[in-house]
Amino acid sequence: MPARYQNAMKWALYALLFLFTILLQDSILGRVQLLGAGFCLCPLVTAAVAAEEGAENGGLFALISATFWALSGATDGGSFILSMTVLAIVVGYLFRTLLNHRWWAVAVTNLASLFFCLLLPYLVRIYLQELTLKSLLPMLIQCLLALPFACGIAWLCMQIGKVGQNRG
Question: What pLDDT, on a 0 to 100 scale, did the predictor assign at position 124?
Answer without folding.
Answer: 79
